[in-house]
Write a structure and sequence with these properties.
- The protein contains 15 helices and 16 strands.
- The chain is of the alpha/beta class.
- It folds into three domains: about 250 residues, Rossmann fold (3-Layer(aba) Sandwich), CATH 3.40.50; about 120 residues, no CATH class; about 45 residues, no CATH class.
- The strands form five sheets. It has a five-stranded parallel β-sheet with strand order 5-4-3-10-11, sandwiched between helices. A four-stranded antiparallel β-sheet has the order 6-7-8-9.
- Helix 6 crosses helix 7 and helix 14 packs antiparallel against helix 15.
- The longest helix is centred in the first third of the chain and has 19 residues.
- It is elongated, with a radius of gyration of 27 Å.
- It binds zinc ion.
- The site of zinc ion (ZN) has 3 residues, from loops.
Length: about 450
């Protein structure tokens, strides 16, 4: 049963096989650390974590690389202010302090959401040398030109520019305009921007073309190649990256190295706030801490995300999130009622095997987490799996079920515990009359009795 993933490059579901043996190189675009991540951004990281876990569940070994954009991401495509410098001005801190502060918060968000730390986390500012080297290569191969404000990529030189977004040539050329700094075509983009003549930037570096800073797209081309080699297996990101950021990453690597950087391109849909896309620029964003303030746990948010397929738009609402939190709590409670290990009386190995197959089929069908959760629910409700099997499934889901089992035996009086033991003994002897008497005794103490394959369970 092979893993099928939707490849944006071909617009098809394809069987995934790594380029080299069992090893998978995975690159996911990281955050621009000038503000809190909003929960719409965090949807992406939850999904890439599930992808990482699903690959491991299939027996692959994953090297997961994520960048941290701490320079060069402008408020407009190639114009406007650098987001880091803008954040610094807003907070009366240095751009370096802003980057450090929000990187730390972002990493805490990942931990709260049970997102495993990528194997490599690389900052753009730590890789200026690699970016300059790559731009030199692009220039040497004839794909770059200089303007008064920077070095630009000449998209007209690349025959299939825009193939990822299926941009048509005529659409691209229709937008020709005389842009600031003298770009030749509207789709051309900055590889290197010069610092303003009379102003010193907080983040700037010397380069063969003059003092300045790298364009946003070049860092991902440089760092993915450095840590994963070329080509690598999977590149992922939000759907908004398709027409510009990822299109330009592909163009840069093809111009410099003559190869498309990754074989699979996987993109997740947005989280919407009502009708609108949630975005910092629209001022309607909610951070993970906002949820915590409203007593919604980060794992409830993760559960909410997993209930919808990653390629479907998802609309945020507080009632939906509260329902997800309730659902997760029920799952934890029901999980506590499952036997620890499979037992013969409970079900056959064959049945467990069948449920495991169904779960794997759902996950391998382009990460169909809603279907996988439905299978889990059914099996937990009907008690057809053991905790051991459930914990295996949770390796993919990442809901920390094992750590959150609700333990009904906690806070149970000594008297009640004695009655439970007596009742288990009576039931073992098939003394149903005695067993019912003891059930009534427990009820008088305020406990509800449940019979489970692992014995008597009670809740207050
Ligand atoms: Zn990127």
């Amino acid at each position: 049963m092979s893993l099928k993933l939707h490849n944006t490059l071909t617009r098809r579901l394809e069987d995934f096989q790594p380029l080299k043996g069992k090893k998978v190189g995975l690159y996911a675009c990281g955050p621009t650390v000038y503000d809190y991540a909003h929960i719409g951004n965090l949807r992406s990281y939850i999904i890439w974590d599930v992808l990482h876990r699903a690959l491991e569940y299939n027996g692959f070994k994953v090297k997961h690389v994520m960048n941290i954009t701490d320079v060069g991401h402008l408020t407009g495509d190639d114009e406007g202010e650098d987001k880091m410098e803008k954040g610094a001005r807003r907070e009366h801190k240095s751009a370096w302090e802003v980057a450090e502060f929000y990187t730390k918060i972002f990493m805490q968000n990942l931990a709260d959401l049970d997102i495993r730390r990528p194997d490599v986390i690389c900052k753009a500012t730590d890789h200026i040398k690699e970016q300059i080297k790559l731009i030199k290569k692009i220039e040497k191969n004839g794909f770059a030109y200089a303007t008064t404000d920077g070095i630009y990529f000449d998209t007209a030189k690349l025959a299939d520019y825009g193939k990822l977004a299926q941009l048509k040539k005529q659409d691209l050329r229709a937008g020709i305009r005389v842009a600031v700094g003298g770009k030749k075509h509207s789709a051309d983009f900055a590889l290197w921007k010069f610092s303003p003549k009379l102003k010193k930037r907080q983040m700037e570096w010397k380069s063969p073309w003059g003092v300045g800073f790298p364009g946003w797209h070049i860092e991902c081309s440089a760092m993915s190649a450095k840590y994963l080699g070329l080509p690598f297996d999977i590149h992922c990101g939000g759907i908004d990256h398709i027409p510009v950021h990822h299109t330009n990453e592909i163009a840069q690597t093809e111009a410099a190295e003559g190869v498309t950087p990754a074989r699979f391109w996987i993109h997740n849909e947005f989280l919407n706030m009502g009708e609108e896309k949630m975005a910092k620029s629209l001022g309607n964003f909610i951070a993970l801490d906002t949820l915590k303030e409203k007593n919604i746990t980060p794992l409830a948010y993760r559960f909410f995300i997993l209930q919808t397929h990653y390629r479907k738009q998802l609309t945020f609402s507080w009632p939906a999130l509260a329902a997800a939190q309730n659902g997760l709590k029920h799952l934890y409670g029901a999980a506590a009622e499952l036997p620890k290990k499979s037992s013969v009386s409970m079900h056959s190995d064959e049945q467990t095997g069948q449920i495991k197959d169904e779960f794997l089929t759902a996950i391998n069908n382009d990460l169909d987490t809603p279907a996988a959760l439905a299978i889990v629910w059914q099996a937990v409700k009907e008690k057809t799996i053991s905790q051991k099997t459930l914990f295996e499934f949770d390796k993919v889901l990442g809901l920390k079920i094992k750590e959150n089992l609700e333990k009904p035996t906690e806070e149970i009086s000594v008297a009640a515990q004695t009655l439970i033991r007596e009742r288990d003994k009576a039931r073992a002897k098939k003394d149903w009359e005695k067993s019912d008497e003891l059930r009534d005794d427990l009820a008088r103490l305020g406990y509800t009795v449940m019979d489970t394959p692992s014995g008597t369970r009670i809740t207050k």
